[in-house]
Every structure is written in structure tokens, then in C-alpha cells.
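DM from R.C. (forwarded with permission)

"hey, sorry to bug you on a friday — could you get me a structure for this? deadline for the figure draft is monday and I only need the backbone to look sensible"
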Amino acid sequence: MAYERTHPNSPWLTQTMIKVLASWLRPEDSGLEWGSGRSTLWLALRINRLISIEHNKSWYRRIESKLKEKGLGNVDYRLYENPSEYISFSEQLPHESLDFVLIDGIARDKCALAAIPILKLGGILVIDNCNWYLPSKSYSPGSRRDFEGAASEEWDTFLHKVCTWRRIWTTSGVTDTALWVKGAK
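My reply, with the result:
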């Protein structure tokens, strides 16, 4: 919380993940985020094109106002209040067309599965609060243990699909953010 207060323009991800993303992302990159917020503004300043999907109308209006205020025209910002439309938006995107996907909104398990086909080989998938859904050795509150398994069948399927991908798991001691690098099929 102290980091978030002293870094008001940084995403609500772990401090380590913010550093990883700052060094990984390139100005020519294109990405998608499910769940908007401080990350939307932060990402838009670092990449060529961002698609941001939000489900909460009042939050959407707040971030839309900030995007206009900052003059950030490289964000295709969309509101889908219907969860099924929110998740299925990715079906409109060509396979292997994005350099990264960030998931920090609703239906994270379904979004994680939907992200796999649209990521380029070598692209990255970032999931915030992953310790709530995936078993880990994290001591962050609410973390799932190995004996509990994944939080849903979709998460089990996700883990199976990315089991050979490289992974970076970061923690703040309060919450965790993980990154997977899409590997060969």
C-alpha cells in the first residue's frame, strides 16, 4: 500500500512485476488488458496500441476521463457490462496478434484461456492476484495451496496449457502477480 501511495502513476501490480514490465514492453508493442485502471494509463505511455476492456460502467467513465485528460489516443477502450461479451471480445482478434495480455478484471480464468490463442509466440500473459486462483507457495493472504488445487476447472485447464511456458511469479507479501512467456506449441 505504501508503494501504491508513493507511486500514484504505477499499476496496481507487484512492484517487481512493474519493473519487469517496464523493461520488457517495447514502444512498438500491442496489447490487451481485461480490467482497466492505473495500468491502462501506464501501459498507454509505453506501447503503440492497447485494447482495454472494462465491465464496470462507473469505473469505465472514470478511466475514460483520465485517458482524455492525458490525451492518450492509442487506447481502444471498451465497455462490456455483459460478462459473456467481456470475455468473448478476444474472439474478434486474430490469432497470435498481441505482444501481451494483462488480466486484472472479472472472469480471470476464462480470460486467461481466451488470451492463449491471441498471444504471439514469445508474448507475455500477466495475471494479477494469481495466488487467489492458482496453487502456490506464496504467503500472501488468500493464497491457494497445492493440496487445494486450482480455483476452477478453467484454471486447471489453463495450468495444463501453460505448463511448459516460462513463468515469473512475484509477490508483495499482500498480493501476487505472475507472468508467463508463450512458448512453442
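R.C.: lifesaver. The chain has one domain: 2-181.
me: no worries. The CA atoms of residues 54 and 103 lie 11 Å apart.
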